[in-house]
Design goal:
There is one protein chain. About 65% of the residues lie in helices and about 0% in strands. The chain is an all-alpha fold and about 100 residues long. It has a domain of about 60 residues. The termini are far apart.
């Protein structure tokens, strides 16, 4: 399955927007010395990482089937959100209801 050009275009748009936002926030911090702007500029790295991760995952999902994955890697996407509630339930601490 080839990479959908619309999805990769959005991923590249997210990366470009994150870079521009990062540059603006970093310049604002440099000009003002505000710790709040520095914090916001550092948070922009998270947005950049999210865009890069999205692009990487789209490329992995579009990879062709191989010996280890005969149906390709795109089939895991619809099932992955269903495992999140179970993981949250297992990770949450168990405590008696009367202790609150």
């Amino acid at each position: 399955m080839p990479v959908d050009s619309t999805l990769t275009r959005y991923a590249w748009l997210a990366i470009g927007t994150a870079l521009v936002t990062l540059a603006i926030k970093w310049a604002a911090w440099w000009l003002t010395g505000s710790v709040g702007l520095l914090s916001d500029a550092l948070e922009a790295f998270i947005n950049l990482g999210a865009g890069l991760l999205a692009l990487w995952m789209l490329r992995i999902a579009a990879s062709p089937p191989d010996d280890k994955h005969p149906y390709g890697l795109s089939n895991s996407a619809p099932r992955s959100p269903s495992s999140v509630p179970g993981a949250r339930t297992r990770a949450s601490p168990s405590r008696p209801m009367g202790s609150i």
